[in-house]
Amino acid sequence: MKIATYNVNGVNGRLPVLLRWLEETRPDVVCLQELKAPQEKFPEQAINGAGYQAVWHGQKSWNGVAILSKNHEIKEIGRALPGDAEDVQSRYLEAMVGGILICCLYLPNGNPAPGPKFDYKLKWFERLQDRAKKLLEFKTPTILIGDFNVMPTELDVYKPERWVDDALFRPETRTAFHTLMEQGWTDAIRKLYPTEVIYTFWDYFRTAYGRNAGLRIDHFLLSPELKDKLVEAKVDKHVRGWEKSSDHAPVWIELRGDL
Any idea which residues are catalytic in this one (predicted)? Predict the structure, then answer.
């Protein structure tokens, strides 16, 4: 079972890239972030034509998340992260796909830090920790998937000394991530590749992709029920080099067995 995540950085503007990648790799489940499209503008017909059904939570101009499935019914569980009824940003979506609870998320960037945006990021992280703890109590196979906007360690960032004051790498952000992990989640990439330099994002500026000056900010966190089913994990780095591609590359994992 192949499950992928891809921050598309505009689902309509980069639809040809998305469809090309789906045709090339045919993942079973896909989480998308940063749709940058209101609910009614999601390209459902094109996604269906590629062989996928979808649920999505759109938002005009910014944010937006979606879950696609090729072979299994999607049952939406919720489209808002609990803990703040006034939060209107479209950053979280839960759905059952087969026997796995897929939690697609787009964690706030938080820059500039310190400041209100960074405060929002940390509070969002706290809400995610609360929800994640509750999900573990259900004992349902669960994956937290998406753009976390955090580099957990120095291994996950090119020239970490340049990022010490950035919201994606500040100590408060990394501490929040590690606190989440300590609940019992498994970082899929690091389980298989504990010491390798692996990036999932390359800025458009300063020829970052060509220099491999990247960040690892797109993650799969597996619940205990799934960690021993993990057999492969990979970044489709070449997609970042396609014309008009997102600044993220798709990332995928493979689990042993079927849903």
Answer: 106, 147, 248
